[in-house]
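Course assignment 3, question 2. Fill in each field.
Student: A.L.
Task: Predict the tertiary structure for the chain below.
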Amino acid sequence: MKLVHFLMKLRNEQVTVELKNGTTVWGTLQTVSPQMNATLTDVKLSLPNKSGNCAAAGVFLSGGQHNAEQKTTALQYINIRGNTIRQIILPDALNLDSLLVDERHLQRMRHSGKLADDSGRKRRMDTNGGPAKRARRAL
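Answer field:
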């Protein structure tokens, strides 16, 4: 499974995104595009200590609330371009086993007969792969 497809399953999870310029973004992941562009809501943006006032001024222009001592800004939402992301830190309580299951691979295996279908079908599969014929009732 590709990393992007895994991240697409993380909808409505609280994540921390670290950018290549040192900025840290914490918020709720809403969408991830195939190019790994991410949209987060209820965001807290922390600027690195080495950044100048120009980065903070950009946050002021975007309508965020800025705290001068901590260089932390609260935003309603943010779009992050995929090639600027260094890492995405996932929550500890996240069940990775259920997210790493590839649904398309399971469907292919079910279709080929290598995996039993758990949909609760009433008919059994015959040995040749087709559905078994019903037995007729005697009157």
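Instructor remarks: The first helix runs from residue 3 to 8. Strands lie at 13-19, 24-32, 38-46, 65-67, 72-80, 85-89.
Grade: pending
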